[in-house]
Amino acid sequence: MADTNARFITPAGLRRLKEEYHALFAVERPKIVETVAWAASLGDRSENADYLYGKRRLREIDRRLAHLARVMKASKVVDPAAQTVHDEVRFGATVELADGEDNHRTVTIVGDDEADASAGRIGWSAPLARALIGARAGDERMVRLPSGEKSYEVLSICYSWRGDCDAGPA
Predict the structure, then answer these.
(1) Rounded Cα–Cα distance for residues 56 and 80 (Å)
(2) What is the pTM of this model?
(3) In a 10 Å sphere around its CB, with 0-12 CB exposed, 13-18 middle and 19+ buried, how is residue 80 labelled?
(4) Cβ-Cβ contacts under 8 Å for 131 (sequence gap 6 or more)
(5) 141: CB partners within 8 A, 6+ apart
(6) What is the pLDDT of residue 166?
(7) What is the predicted pLDDT for the residue at 5?
């Protein structure tokens, strides 16, 4: 995974992108098109809120669909189940960390396009993920963050596809 321009993604991440694409294309967009057509049939479009909002929402949906299509086309699926090393941090690993103040945090290293910090999924090119790649349980890693350097100890490493994660991010 040395190619920093590659758009790596897990199979689950690609599935989520496809589900979002389908929901927008097959469900939401047709409803908005129907509303816009109905609103247009009423006559004066310049003051018709349904028409104006619908057209704006269609543009938003179309931009998101184009973005999702580009991401899916450029993505390289990396299945964490194919990892041969299970005792060190690699793409797809769920890692339990402790910082210097003994605050615990669990993160899963995923593709940048599927990252969601609130769900504990961090993109593989994020500073924390880059610092963790290759670490083993018990290792301490220094991470350079915008707020300064911070040290993390790797407490445990698991891969959810193996079923050895109790309750980590998916």
Answers:
(1) 39
(2) 0.75
(3) buried
(4) 141, 142, 143, 144, 152
(5) 131, 132, 135, 151, 152, 153, 154
(6) 57
(7) 63
